[in-house]
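hi! just following up on the protien thing from before. the input was this:
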Amino acid sequence: MNERQGRAVKLSTKGRYGIKAMVDLALEYESGNTVSIATLAHSQNISEAYLERQIVSLKKAGLVESARGVFGGYRLTRSPEFINVGEILRALEGKTTIVDCVDGSVMKSCDNACSCSARPLWLKLQARIDDVLNSTTLQDMAEDYDAQIKFINSKKGDTGNASLS
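and the predicted 3d structure came back as:
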């Protein structure tokens, strides 16, 4: 068996945990509350130090801001309806291309880009991925997550909403 068989194209933990942290912050946006790194890390069952590195990247990208003090923590810099998933992933992962030849700046270095029989497929696939990432807002994700939690809780007999509180 080829060592690459069975591997999936997937996001790193940086992207996965960063998106989940942003959804947690979106859930708290309307309240105006900040969320501590400890609370965010606990909700995802990951180390505070690891999540802090992702938050720093999100802060550098202008997506989150911090507040100091006893009630300090992090909050979104703008409404979740104005932050898309593509922005978040680019802040955390860098490029979101599935293969190098679909990135315009890299194509110049690929000798086979013009004659590659698979490149049209990669371009179509990348366009669809970009469309989903850039059209899905943090608000969409928060609403979907809240609906998911309500559904799960309805099966358990609980009626709570998704919240970090």
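Helices lie at 13-29, 37-44, 48-60, 85-93, 104-107, 119-135, 138-156.
The first strand starts at residue 64 and ends at 67.
cheers
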